[in-house]
């Protein structure tokens, strides 16, 4: 029995000892953190490479210097000039209100008394028709009204139109001599006081000629105003026409000569020469324009000399214009800025006083606001149809 008890005790001691040895070991094994389970990156996340690649060398990109885009200039093709006056008739609205409507309302009265005729005269004079022309027009109207007796508005309108057209001398030759001849271009001199719209008109005439199928070269002989040469050159570039210019303050006659020479060599139809009007006195004007003309005529006669007149300057402008007609042989008048005045009657006065036909009229600042002058269409626009 004793042996059994001893054996049991021994067994218990052995078991306790074994447990004592095993448990601490297990505890020690628990201490290190549990091995981490590698997390699977989400599908769209880039898996980092196992072996780190060396960073790619930094490439310094040279700035790309783009070659300048040279755009071909857009060459405009202006509309032909036929019918322009009719298309631009609304521009005469100021004159129409002052002259056309005023006259029609008086003329439509049942019995025209002396003061009515005076009123008619006054309207015409206010519209710059000029005293002489006014007297003729009123006289003729009085006679017709007396003979006709009772009148309708339509009849009166018709008579008024006829008298104004007659005062504009419709038989005058208003064609522009711009066609080439004898193997050389036609030469057109554009003259007038500064500010009248000379350079602008020169550019517009070029467009009219190109619109009608011709070719043009500009001569920038207004060397007094540097901007004038730039201005005319810009007009030329828009329609693909060449401009011959000289140094600022240079000799206008020499520029004009070179322009005609270049025009002959390049075979254009018309050479348009813009001149300067900045001349204090008649002697200076005579010297300069006379020289330009003489020098140009070494190539052949000048075909057309156009005098540019500002319609808004009225009767005063007419006096200045007369000086030009004494200096050069003016063949036609271009009356500008008719859109800005109620004095459209100046056309009649200009022709009467200068004895030179109005060939073109300026009706705005737009490039194609220049129309060949047609007396009937002009008067129709001036009188209007809704009075
Ligand atoms: N409303 C209107 N303005 C016009 C017309 N014609 C020209 N002009 C304007 O008149 C101004 C003077 O025109 P320019 O052509 O520079 O005058 P210029 O006679 O050449 O003047 P200089 O070169 O100084 O001798 C400009 O602002 C034009 O746009 C027209 O028919 N109607």
From TrEMBL:
Q: Which residues form a coiled coil?
A: none
In which residues is GTP bound?
192-199, 274-278, 336-339
General function of this protein: Involved in targeting and insertion of nascent membrane proteins into the cytoplasmic membrane. Acts as a receptor for the complex formed by the signal recognition particle (SRP) and the ribosome-nascent chain (RNC).
In Swiss-Prot or TrEMBL terms, this protein is called Signal recognition particle receptor FtsY
Assembly state and interactors? Part of the signal recognition particle protein translocation system, which is composed of SRP and FtsY.
Where found, per UniProt?
A: Cell membrane; Cytoplasm
Record domain SRP54-type proteins GTP-binding: where: 357-370
Recorded catalytic reaction(s): these are: GTP + H2O = GDP + phosphate + H(+)
E.C. no: 3.6.5.4
User: Which gene holds the coding sequence for this protein?
Assistant: ftsY
Membrane-topology annotation of the record? Peripheral membrane protein
Among SUPFAM superfamilies, the record links this protein to:
Domain of the SRP/SRP receptor G-proteins, P-loop containing nucleoside triphosphate hydrolases
* Stated family: Belongs to the GTP-binding SRP family. FtsY subfamily.
Q: Does the keyword Hydrolase apply?
A: yes
Superkingdom to which the source organism belongs: Bacteria
> What species is this protein from?
Actinoplanes couchii
- Name the major location: membrane
Keywords, A to Z, come to:
Cell membrane, Cytoplasm, GTP-binding, Hydrolase, Membrane, Nucleotide-binding, Receptor
Which InterPro entries does the protein's record reference?
AAA+_ATPase (IPR003593), P-loop_NTPase (IPR027417), Signal_recog_particl_SRP54_hlx (IPR013822), SR_rcpt_FtsY (IPR004390), SRP/SRP_N (IPR036225), SRP54_GTPase_dom (IPR000897), SRP54_N_sf (IPR042101)
Q: What HAMAP family does this protein's entry cite?
A: FtsY
């Amino acid at each position: 029995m004793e042996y059994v008890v001893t054996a049991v005790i021994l067994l218990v001691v052995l078991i306790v000892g074994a447990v004592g040895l095993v448990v601490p070991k297990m505890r020690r094994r628990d201490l290190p953190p549990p091995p981490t389970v590698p997390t699977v990156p989400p599908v769209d996340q880039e898996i980092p490479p196992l072996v780190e690649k060396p960073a790619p060398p930094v490439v310094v990109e040279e700035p790309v210097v783009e070659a300048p885009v040279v755009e071909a200039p857009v060459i405009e093709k202006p509309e032909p000039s036929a019918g322009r006056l009719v298309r631009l008739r609304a521009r005469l609205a100021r004159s129409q209100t002052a002259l056309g409507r005023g006259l029609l309302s008086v003329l439509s009265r049942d019995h025209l008394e002396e003061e009515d005729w005076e009123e008619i005269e006054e309207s015409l004079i206010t519209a710059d028709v000029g005293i002489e022309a006014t007297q003729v027009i009123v006289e003729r109207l009085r006679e017709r009204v007396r003979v006709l007796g009772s009148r309708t508005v339509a009849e009166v309108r018709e008579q008024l139109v006829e008298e104004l057209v007659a005062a504009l001398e419709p038989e005058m030759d208003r064609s522009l001599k711009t066609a080439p001849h004898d193997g050389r271009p036609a030469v057109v001199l554009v003259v007038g006081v500064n500010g009248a719209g000379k350079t602008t008109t020169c550019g517009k005439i070029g467009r009219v000629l190109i619109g009608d199928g011709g070719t043009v070269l500009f001569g920038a002989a207004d060397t007094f105003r540097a901007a004038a040469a730039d201005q005319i050159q810009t007009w030329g570039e828009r329609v693909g026409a060449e401009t011959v210019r000289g140094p600022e303050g240079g000799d206008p006659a020499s520029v004009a000569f070179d322009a005609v020479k270049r025009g002959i060599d390049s075979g254009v139809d018309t050479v348009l020469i813009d001149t300067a009007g900045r001349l204090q006195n008649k002697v200076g004007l005579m010297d300069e324009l006379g020289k330009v003309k003489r020098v140009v005529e070494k190539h052949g006669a000048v075909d057309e000399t156009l005098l540019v007149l500002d319609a808004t300057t009225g009767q005063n402008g007419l006096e200045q214009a007369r000086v030009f007609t004494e200096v050069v042989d003016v063949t036609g008048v271009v009356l500008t800025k008719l859109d800005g005045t109620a004095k459209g009657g100046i056309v009649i006065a200009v022709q009467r006083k200068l004895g030179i036909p109005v060939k073109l009229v300026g009706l705005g600042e737009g490039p194609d606001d220049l129309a060949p002058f047609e007396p009937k269409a002009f008067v129709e626009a001036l009188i209007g149809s809704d009075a």
